[in-house]
Write a structure and sequence with these properties.
mainly alpha, 27 helices
Length: 474
């Protein structure tokens, strides 16, 4: 077996050659602990765990009480997933060398693998307490171990300690940025990605990751800029090309997005999602024919693409082809019944087709899944109004008001419905709020409540002349 000895010294090469010679001759040679450590390290560093295990077994037969060899045995046991066996070795070592930082670090590794986080953290902290040299490397290793099990809060704690030792360690900066990204602390994530990029401006991964954070924040222009840098560094990084197209579409740069996705399709010819987003961009420009063409191309590649059926249903609904839209949204819901937007569109389609009970059920399901869109509440109230369910409409709008108390459209509708049941005081309260927010949308109120009430008319008149009292409810 020919070994690569480029990074070890002459004495270590001699030890390795003697060990291989011993194996070849099927005999026994004596090696001191120092020689055996370096033979084991060689195999560990080359990921040759089979040979490393054989050397450790041989070493412990010669030097059964050598703590450094026992420690390497624990490392191999951990690598093999034999956590309890490794823990037994480590506990024995801790009783012999209570001040050995590496023993407690490895105990922390074992406990973290076993899901015993509290014990792992205690062992890691003890390792840090005992560490004098290479503390920064130890902190990084601890953070990296915790990162593997998704404990990003604690990763940040240890990476920050390493950062305090060296605030220009590129590994620490990148991992801090990444952990904060995982914790949805986007502001700090961007800060550390920027610090990292200042040290390594040609890191395509850093530019790509910071673009993803900007995308989460709806800062699409900055995301596009970061992705442009990514592609300047590596023009073949097709993940960045895809994300650039996505951000362009989200930023209403539809033509640019279409072109970027077409470039992407030259690399990934069978990308259903690329065809979908091209169709989406055309749909946003009211180019229905082109949108439907690309949606159908996406479905040829992936017939179970729920968003595509939703997109087709939306276009057909906009074109008043309600029956066709009905069948498309049914397909979308069959594939994904947990999307509130799908149920919202289904409710609107059913309403147009006169299926009022189905529309009502669809609105209720949509609200159960996602109630953060004020338009959903407004549309549901419109259905109830059209179906002469005035009190149900008031209840829905009152609940909507709890979520969006400054939404003028909700307040206008609630005021009008309350006026219809002669609850003038409450109607005035909501009408005031609506007039203060968006006075130009008064027609919403008028379209529902057309009667003449002196108190309401006086309120409107006073507001038109700028004399509205924004404090009192009377």
């Amino acid at each position: 077996m020919e070994e690569n000895f480029d990074y070890i010294n002459e004495e270590e090469v001699l030890a390795l050659n003697r060990y291989n010679e011993m194996l070849k001759n099927n005999t026994n040679y004596y090696f001191d602990v120092y020689e055996l450590e370096h033979i084991i390290d060689y195999y560990l560093n080359t990921d040759d765990f089979k040979n490393a295990k054989e050397v450790i077994e041989y070493s412990l037969r010669i030097h059964p009480t050598a703590t450094s060899l026992m420690l390497k045995n624990a490392q191999i046991l951990i690598n093999d997933g034999l956590h309890y066996k490794s823990l037994k070795v480590l506990n024995k070592l801790a009783s012999i060398e209570a001040s050995n930082s590496e023993v407690f670090f490895l105990k922390g590794v074992v406990y973290s693998s076993l899901g015993e986080l509290k014990r792992a953290l205690a062992a890691f902290d003890q390792a840090i307490y005992l560490s004098y040299d290479e503390k920064e490397e130890l902190l990084i290793n601890i953070a990296s171990t915790l990162q593997q099990i998704g404990q990003y809060d604690f990763c940040v704690k240890y990476y920050k300690q390493a950062y305090d030792i060296d605030n220009e360690n590129s590994t620490v900066l990148f991992e801090l940025a990444y952990c904060y990204e995982k914790l949805n602390n986007d502001k700090k994530s961007i800060y550390y990605y920027k610090r990292y990029i200042a040290l390594d401006p040609f890191s395509k991964l850093a530019w790509y990751n910071i673009a993803n954070v900007y995308h989460k924040l709806d800062k699409f222009e900055r995301a596009i800029e970061a992705l442009s840098y990514t592609l300047a560094i590596d023009p073949d990084y097709h993940f960045a090309l895809y994300q650039k197209g996505l951000n362009e579409v989200y930023n209403e740069m539809y033509d640019e997005g279409i072109q970027t996705f077409k470039e992407y399709l030259e690399i990934e010819k069978d990308s259903a999602s690329a065809f979908f987003h091209i169709g989406e961009a055309y749909a946003k420009q009211n180019k229905s024919k082109e949108a439907l063409f690309h949606f159908d191309k996406a479905l040829k590649l992936d017939e179970n693409y729920a968003d595509v059926y939703y997109g087709k249903a939306y276009i057909l609904f906009s074109e008043k082809k309600y029956t066709d839209a009905y069948y498309e949204i049914k397909k979308a819901l069959k594939l994904d019944a947990e999307d509130g937007d799908f149920w919202h569109l289904s409710a609107l389609i059913n309403q147009k087709l006169g299926f009022m009970n189905e529309a009502d059920k669809a609105f209720k399901t949509a609200l159960d899944l996602e109630n953060s869109d004020p338009q959903l509440w407004i549309d549901y109230s419109n259905l109830l109004n059209s179906n002469k369910n005035l009190f149900k409409s008031i209840n829905i709008l009152s609940e909507a008001f709890e979520h969006f108390n400054d939404n003028a459209e909700i307040n206008y509708r609630l005021a009008a419905n309350l006026a219809l049941i002669s609850n003038v005081d409450s109607a005035v309260y909501h009408l005031k709020k609506a007039l203060n927010e968006e006075p130009d949308k008064l027609e919403i109120f008028r379209s529902i409540y057309s009667a003449s009430n002196s108190i309401i008319e006086k309120l409107i008149e006073n507001h038109m002349f700028g004399n509205i009292d924004t404090g009192s409810n009377n």
